Structure formats: C-alpha cells, structure tokens
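Cross-check.
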Amino acid sequence: MSVCSSRAFCLYFNIIGFLLSGYAFYVEMKVKEDPTYKPLCDLDENISCTKPFNSTYGKGFGVVDKVLPADHWLNQPNPIYGFGLYSLTTLLSLFRYHFLSKIQFYVVLLANFGSIYLGYILYFVLENLCVVCVAIYATNFLLLIASFAKMRSTRLGTRRMDIREHGQQDRNLRLPTSSNRRDFKKNI
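Predicted model, tokenized:
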C-alpha cells in the first residue's frame, strides 16, 4: 500500500471515529438534559447506548474517578477522549515522516487496548451491547491496520529516499546462487 493511500485510509477512519464520538457525546448530553430522550441507538433493554454512556465507565473510562477527585478536569466523558484521539491521529496522518507514523501507530495501539477494556466492561460487567461503542471499537481496529500500513510504507519510503540521496544500491552484493558464485567470490 502506498503512503498516499494509507494516509487516506487513516484520515477516513479518523473522520468516522470523530463523527461516532460526536454522536456519542450528543446522546450523552441530550440524555442528561432530557431523561425521556430515546436515541436511535437504544433498540431495547440489552441493546442500548445510553446505559454505558451514563454508567460510571462512561466517564474517564471508570478509572479516573477512582484515582482522582470526581470533579477533576481529567474526569471527562469518554467521547471527549475520542475527540482528542482522533484529532491527534488526524494531525499525525498528515505527515509522511516515519517517526510520526510510529507515534501514530502506538497511540492507536493504546486506543485499541482501551477498546478491549471497554468492550469487556460493556459485555461482561454492564451486560449490554452498544451499537455506537462497537462501531467505535471497529473503527479503532481499522485505524490500527491503516496506521500500521502507513508506518510500513513510510519506512519503505525512507529507504527509497536514502537510496536516491546516497546513490544506487550496490547491486553487486548478492547472496550466492548457482549462477553467480563467481560474482560472490569477487565481492568478498
């Protein structure tokens, strides 16, 4: 996959993640404002997005309030962290540097560990299925694949740039085969 196409996929999945986080934040705020509000993602009692959004795990991943005071500025709704993640990875997607691609990959990998944690909480602790949450988890996984492809393609692009800057590769250095054994002896 070329650098341009992997960057495009990264940007595409970032936009999807940003939109899903925006919808999650909208639903969370609308339910706090009007408790009778029923969003589209509430299909029945066991398939509901308002249940996880309004649970203790819907703010600060359910961890921040155990470590810091409940009114601490880090104890934000989870979609706010999603906005931060997708903003950062969008910014990192715009550049072709291998170092920034590695940072992007590891940030998205960390987000996927968060998705696994929240997916476990969603299914086994809250015993619920949130369509928006699962869509965000899937988007994070696809973003991980796109980030990995971008990281690989920028690494290859860096090698190609080094070859262009420092001249052609020494094409005489090859592993010995039956046809070039004499060439190999010359290179020793």
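Residues 3-166 form a domain with the de novo design (two linked rop proteins) fold (CATH 1.20.1440.130). Helices lie at 3-33, 50-53, 64-67, 78-93, 98-125, 131-166, 181-187. Passed to J.P. for a second look.
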